[in-house]
């Protein structure tokens, strides 16, 4: 699995969409991902920033179910639950806590433990139900001795936000074995593997470290906008067992760094690979139609590489009016967070800069 392969896998259908449709999807994603970032930072009891804007009717606050679990998702959708051979979608409620996913109608209830989920595929509408759904998430799970699939469909914004929360519920708090950096450029590093936690945010996968941290065992994160290549490698562990290792090449401080991540659970490794593919494709699709002039790229690189208090106009040897014009254009293309300093690069902006660094490194 590579970043390039993942883009090709999901890109054929997107390429046929019009530019205006693509722009609308990107705008909707910006709103829902802003809400997702806020939820990631403030916990499941926080009110979603876009809760009042959502068309889904999903709850923006968690609440307690009768079992005492916190409900973090509750919305109405059409779905095919449990691999129903008839592929007849039904309308019902989709509820999720940190422990289980529940699909409920007036007549049936399908309960899926989060720990039984082995696959999450977003945006791939199965041929059997494509006449019923515009956008879906397929959830594969184990039910006793059987593998089953459920398909949940709805508008793009609702399904994408729900999918992000489902990825988080499935992976957050997992234990991973990490080697960072495994390589810097082409140079193999003698970095020891260490056990750490794992948490997802839209913009990054973070590794908070172990409970007892040394100076070398501190937290770090991989900026998903900086990923240039990734693949899953099968290796033999010290105990002789076969394990999967996710090798991720990403740009740090202008140079390519490789990090290696492994978890004992193949189920979780598969889902983590799915997550990286999804976010990579989202970010790249959002910049596919954006043309950045060389003069604007200079501003992006300057913002990326310098401190906030640096006079960017002087650094680039341009006037204030010219800088304002370039910042306005970059903001219109959603590559920076504001038109006036201080500004940050969006994930799409960082993606473009990191591609530039990667081209230089090559």
Uncertain stretches of 5 or more adjacent residues: 1-22, 41-61
- How far apart the termini lie comes to 21 Å
Q: What kind of oligomer do you see? A: single chain
Average residue pLDDT: 80
Shape: globular
Helix content: 25-40%
Structural classification: alpha+beta
Report the major sheet: 8 strands, antiparallel
* Global Rg: 22 Å
Q: Could you spell the SSE succession in H and E letters?
A: HHEEEEEEEEEHEEEEEEEEHHHHH
Number of DSSP-assigned strands: 17
Helix segment count?
A: 8
Strand content: 25-35%
Could you give a short description of this structure?
The protein is α+β, with helices and mostly antiparallel strands. The chain has helices spanning 3-15, 19-42, 156-171, 266-287, 294-305, 312-316, 320-332, 347-361, and strands spanning 63-64, 70-71, 73-80, 90-96, 100-104, 109-113, 117-122, 136-143, 146-153, 174-184, 187-188, 194-200, 204-207, 220-223, 227-236, 242-252, 255-262. The radius of gyration is 22 Å and the shape is globular.
């Amino acid at each position: 699995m590579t970043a390039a392969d993942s883009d090709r896998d999901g890109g054929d259908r997107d390429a046929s969409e019009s530019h205006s449709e693509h722009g609308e999807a990107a705008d909707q994603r910006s709103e829902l991902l802003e809400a997702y970032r806020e939820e990631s930072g403030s916990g499941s009891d926080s009110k979603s920033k876009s809760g009042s804007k959502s068309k889904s009717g999903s709850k923006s606050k968690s609440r307690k179910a009768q079992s005492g679990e916190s409900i973090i998702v509750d919305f109405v959708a059409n779905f095919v639950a449990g691999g129903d051979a008839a592929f007849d979608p039904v309308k019902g409620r989709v509820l999720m806590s940190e422990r289980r996913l529940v699909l409920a109608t007036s007549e049936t209830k399908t309960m899926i433990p989060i720990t039984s989920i082995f696959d999450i595929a977003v945006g791939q509408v199965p041929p059997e139900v494509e006449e019923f759904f515009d956008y879906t998430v397929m959830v594969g799970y184990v039910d006793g001795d059987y593998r089953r699939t459920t398909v949940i469909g709805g508008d793009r914004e609702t399904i994408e936000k729900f999918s992000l929360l489902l990825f988080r519920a499935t992976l957050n708090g997992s234990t991973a074995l990490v080697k960072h950096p495994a390589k810097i450029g082409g140079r193999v590093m003698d970095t020891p593997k260490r056990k750490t936690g794992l948490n997802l945010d839209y913009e990054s996968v973070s590794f908070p470290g172990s409970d007892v941290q040394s100076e070398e065992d501190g937290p770090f994160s991989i900026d998903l906008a900086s990923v240039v290549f990734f693949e899953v490698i099968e290796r033999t562990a010290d105990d002789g067992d076969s394990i999967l290792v996710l090798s991720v090449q990403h740009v740090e401080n202008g140079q390519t760094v490789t990090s290696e991540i492994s978890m004992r659970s193949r189920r979780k490794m598969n889902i983590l690979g799915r997550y990286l593919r999804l976010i990579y494709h989202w970010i790249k699709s959002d910049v596919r139609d954006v043309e950045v002039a060389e003069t604007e790229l200079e501003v992006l690189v300057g913002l990326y590489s310098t401190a906030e208090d640096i006079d960017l106009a002087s650094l680039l040897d341009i006037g204030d009016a010219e800088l304002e014009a370039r910042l306005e254009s970059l903001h219109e293309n959603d590559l920076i967070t504001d038109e006036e300093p201080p500004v940050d690069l969006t994930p799409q902006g960082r993606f473009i800069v990191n591609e530039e660094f990667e081209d230089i490194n090559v």
